[in-house]
Amino acid sequence: MIEGILIGLTTALTLQNILMVMVGCFFGTIIGMLPGLGPMTAIALMIPITYGFDPATGLILMAGVYYGAVFGGSTSSILLNAPGVPGTVATSFDGYPMAQQGKAGKALAIAAWSSFAGGTLSAIYLLFMAPSLSKVSLSFRSPDYFALMILGLTAIAAFSSKGQFLKAMMMVVLGLMLASVGQDSLSDITRFTFDNMNLTDGISFVLVVMATFAMSEALTIILKRNDPTSAAKQVSLTELGSIKINKEERTKMYKTIPRSSIIGFLIGVLPGAGATIASFLAYGMERNVVNDEEKEKFGKGSVNGLSAPETANNAACSGSFVPMLTLGIPGSGTTAVMLGALLGFGVQPGPRLYMTNPEIFWSIIMSMYIGMVILLILNLPLIPYIARILAVPKNYLIPLILFFSVTGIYVMSFNNFDIYLMIGIAVVATFLRLYDFPMPPLILAFVLGGLMEENLRRSLLLSNGSWEFLWDRTLTLCILLTTILIVVWHFYKSIIRK
Amino acid sequence: MNINTTKIISLLFFIFSAFYLYTAYQIQVFAFDENAPFNARTFPIYLGYAGLFFSGLKFILPEPNTIKVDHKNLEYKKTAILIVIAIIYGATILKVGYFLTTSLFLFSSYYFLGERRWVLMFLLSFPFVAAFMYLLHGILDIYLRDPFLQSIGVMG
Question: Distance between CA A72 and CA A63 in Å, rounded?
Fold first, then answer.
């Protein structure tokens, strides 16, 4: 392994490859900041360029774009509550309120440091555990995935604010219902399209997230006569963009980062799970482990609440490389695009990759770490300037948020119907938010809907329609028992509070 | 039982779930799939029942924290205008083109939100959209349909 690491370092530290990581991080950050253009688009845009390089350099460039786009997605989540990337939805829960309190620079800095730490720790995990973890990830079966998704959805509902469990569960069901629109993945039978061709492919994630977060946030601000820039007006531009993190906040991060990086990495390793589930689970877990005083701050600008999903989503990015490189199974949509590029280079990923092409395997792992460092060096100095977006007066900020939302949808589909659908969902979401119906459970359910149905389908078909698959395997049973424990614990705490 | 808006929303969700469930039962599946343990309508049917269950519970159970919204203080007029502008924007973007509709959308939104600094309003609409369009279309090579710019010969 030492020999492999040295080969990787030698390849990753060439001037050309360092330059590639820098270029990748820079463009990735810019593209990630634009709603609607996530890491998948960013990498897809880079593929034609990478074919001019050798495989290692091409993949290093794509890894840089990947990390940059994830970080860029966090920036729009924190500043505008407009997460363009599913993995950064959870970042907005506490990042956006923190920015609204005039601490935009601090929120971005916490996100940057947490991403860096999450990425660094996961690169270390990857270094030592990649080959053995690939075997573990293969031991996960459909019932385990189904149980894991039930756990994720229940956890997010249970960890919503006080007395909102049923409202959150209603939102979970609504999210799953929205996800069920369109063609059935196996039989291609259309469902809930009402003969409208525009719904055949289903509703896009970016549309739902833009409608329920960015657009409905903008409409709520106008409706409630709020001023999102009021806190920013009360502090100086220097204070708004200040990236100083005090000792108390650092202490909180020291505790949050290790546990969130582990959960992020492990979830990232599971094929199909990815950064979104990782960030939601890390957020839920963090809320559960902190003390009651800190718990109250969740959703209102908690340091732990911001640091946990940011650490986890970056850790999951590294984790998702494990099944891709060692098994040839992409852990997310983004790594699926990268896998396509890898095959285009004539490299066959699999258990023997790190023996047949050690320079590719290890140089990607090494460049991940170098990418983290470069991302931090590039982005930290820019934070004070990026944070000034919040000093833009409300009369300009709101139309700009609406503009980014509509553009995000328009560049994806070139379709009027999607814009109308987005406006419709945004109006409903604004009304629901007015009565405290939480939106995060809806988004998570929407993301997981397809996967959940797929895994339930496989499980039921394999067990001949019997629900015994829920307790046949120890792992499934353990995950489901954890789910039940969370629900019971939630109700117990509610009764105690009364 | 005290009926508040949350209860009314729960009731509406209950009705919506019932409609969803009815539609789920109407999904046409292949004949050979009709009695399979899982087909295209299985998951939606479960979802329909879950929706009925949770919204029913929410409707029946007492509300611990009733949310009161002061409707008199809500800015319905501006919100409605903004929604209408967005709908018009959506309706014209394909026919007229990205540049002109987006610029006009931004300009009119600034105006209806009470902004009157004309120069700034102009700078943050037309030149801003042009720069953004250049980034997407010119640098990132993302196609943006624009019949207006094509008709005046700016775009090929």
Answer: 14
Question: In A, residues 225-244, which contact B (CB 8 Å cutoff)?
Answer: 225
Q: What is the pLDDT of residues B104-128, one digit of tens each?
A: 999 999 999 988 999 999 999 999 9
Rounded-to-integer distance, Cα A319 and Cα A125, Å: 9
> What is the count of structural domains for chain A?
1
Min Cα separation A34/chain B (Å): 10
Nearest CA in chain B to A418: B90
Residues A400 and A396: their CA atoms lie apart, in Å, by 6
**B84 plus B130 within the same structural domain:** yes
- Which among B27, B76, B110 is the nearest to A189, CB-wise? B27
Closest-CA distance of chain B to residue A7, Å: 34
Owning domain of residue A173? 2-497
ipTM of the complex as predicted: 0.93
* Neighbouring C-beta atoms of residue A248, cutoff 10 Å: 9
The predicted-structure confidence for A371-419, as pLDDT tens digits, reads as follows 788 888 877 888 887 777 767 788 888 898 888 888 888 887 788 899 9
Burial class (CB in 10 A: 0-12, 13-18, 19+), B64: exposed
Query: Contact, A398 vs A222, CB < 8 A?
Result: yes
Write the residue in B30, B79, B144 that is nearest to A222 by C-beta: B79
Domain residues for the domain of B41 are: 5-60
Establish if B67 belongs to a structural domain: no
Same domain, B52 and B84: no
Tell me whether residues A187 and B142 touch, CB distance under 8 A.
Answer: no
Q: What is the pTM of this model?
A: 0.79
Tokens at residue A18, please? 């360092």
